[in-house]
Design a protein that fits this description.
The chain is of the alpha+beta class. Helix content is 40%, strand content 33%. A hairpin with a 4-residue loop joins strand 16 and strand 17.
């Protein structure tokens, strides 16, 4: 032993006991002092050890949904704000319904008119048999006159709606030009927002007037076409009743009925679409969760291109980390892992591996997703988590404190207590987690390993075992 180590060991020994510093051996008339080195020992038993690899990742919600209105329109009511809990199918906000309800009423009137035309065509068909023929002819002549008047009336209405449509389009063109100019000025910072908002509102109103005028014109066109069809049917029925074979007349009348029915069906389809559009004015939540973002405001317009709400589902959350190739084959989906979210608690949280990428990404690491149950909602998206993966594990083995094992130029070794004498034993080590280390060979169960004071020992030194 070097002088420095020997002096240090003797000082340590003196601190433990003034009277137990050594033993005496007598040789002739001389007394020789034999020094002992103070040490603590640990008896070897079966234990277990594991090493971990730690990765950091950010908490994300299980699901994020952007809620977009199916149609553009003015918001009449909003029912939820950021941070609110919402259940699936609850109404988030509602759009103004007035224009759609007006459209539905107009289409319902067109359907009624078309159904009357169908009934008229059916009556014409029914009148072509038996003793009612002559009275039917008279009725058909009256019907032709009425159909002419109806056609003239609808033709006038069609021309009026055409004029209205043209005026609306001209007005919209002027408003659009004004709006584009205002937008350019606003984008350049040369126009106040209130002035731009006014121009934008005028633009939208003018556009809505064009759409209403187009709908009115379309309906007027349908009414006119129906009137022309009714007139043609009346005239044809009259001709058939007065000069052609009755069977041919029946076939022609049947065609008239079919055409009238087809016209009604066409308008009915438009009516069904309008009713579905009315249902779409109530925008509902597609999932249960919390509102994380919101742009919809009462009195403002929404479009189908911008998310009005964003909903996150955090009943469970997920953490994605990117692990190295040294770990990837030691983990598997369904495996439980421990996580720490230090900003929330120092207690571990149990998560479960849900997915493992089969291939490395551009960073040469493998994305792994861990799911965490979050029924109370304390874990929030955006928090940072440490994920602890077990990279190696052994049980029923010998484990000693890490600093118990020392190294020389060629070997690793420990000191064991051999009947009060320090014995240097070469060992082979296994798992090392930084605090403890596994001993694979060299020592056995029941032996006493020096765990303190070993730095001052040499092979063969006498030991003073400390409690």
């Amino acid at each position: 032993m070097s002088n420095t180590k020997r002096i240090t060991a003797l000082l340590l020994l003196a601190a433990l006991s003034l009277s137990g510093c050594g033993s005496q051996a007598t040789q002739g008339e001389e007394t020789i002092e034999v020094s002992k080195i103070a040490a603590e020992v640990m008896e070897i038993g079966h234990s277990s050890i594991q090493s971990e690899m730690v990765y950091a990742g950010k908490v994300n919600p299980r699901q994020t949904i952007s809620v977009v209105s199916k149609m553009a329109g003015k918001v009449s009511e909003v029912y939820f704000d950021i941070g609110d809990k919402v259940e699936k199918d609850q109404v988030l906000f509602a759009l103004d319904e007035d224009d759609i309800r007006d459209q539905i009423r107009q289409l319902e009137a067109s359907v009624s008119a078309g159904q009357a035309g169908v009934q008229s065509a059916q009556n014409s068909l029914n009148s072509l048999t038996g003793g009612q023929y002559e009275s039917s002819v008279l009725q058909l002549e009256t019907g032709v006159e009425n159909s002419k008047k109806t056609m003239e009336t609808t033709e006038i209405a069609l021309k009026n709606t055409e004029i209205t449509l043209a005026n609306a389009r001209d007005a919209f063109a002027n408003t659009e030009t004004s709006y584009n100019n205002s937008k350019a000025l606003y984008d350049a910072g040369a126009l106040a927002k209130s002035s731009f908002d006014s121009a934008e509102l005028g633009y939208k109103q003018a556009k809505a007037q064009v759409e209403q005028a187009e709908l009115a014109y379309s309906q007027a066109q349908v009414s006119y076409d129906q009137a022309v069809l009714a007139l043609n049917q009346s005239e044809e029925s009259l001709v058939l009743a007065t000069g052609k074979i009755l069977d041919d007349s029946k076939r022609a009348a049947q065609i008239g009925v079919s055409q009238a029915q087809a016209s009604v069906q066409s308008v009915q389809v438009q009516l069904d679409i309008a009713r579905k559009t009315l249902e779409d004015t109530a925008v509902t939540a597609p999932i249960s969760g919390f509102i994380s973002a919101k742009t919809a405001k009462a009195g403002e317009y929404v479009s189908s291109a911008l998310a009005a709400y964003t909903i996150v589902d955090i009943d469970s959350v997920k953490v994605e980390v990117k692990v190295s190739e040294a770990l990837i084959n030691k983990i598997h989906p369904g495996q439980e892992v421990e996580l720490y979210i230090r900003t929330m608690s120092n207690e571990p949280i149990t998560g479960k591996i849900s997915t493992i990428s089969p291939a490395a990404d551009a960073t040469s690491t493998f994305p792994v997703v861990i799911e965490i149950e979050n029924p109370v909602g304390l874990i929030r998206p955006g928090m940072f988590a440490e994920v602890h993966f077990i990279s190696a594990f052994s049980e029923g083995t010998i484990v000693v404190p890490r600093n118990t094992v020392m190294k020389d130029e060629t070997n690793q070794y420990v000191f064991v207590n051999n009947n009060g004498t320090a014995e240097k034993v070469i060992v082979e080590t296994g798992i090392d987690n930084g605090q403890e280390i596994e001993i694979i060979s060299g020592i056995s169960i029941g032996q006493q390993v020096v765990v303190k004071g070993q730095s001052y020992l040499e092979d063969g030194d006498l030991l003073l075992i400390s409690e």
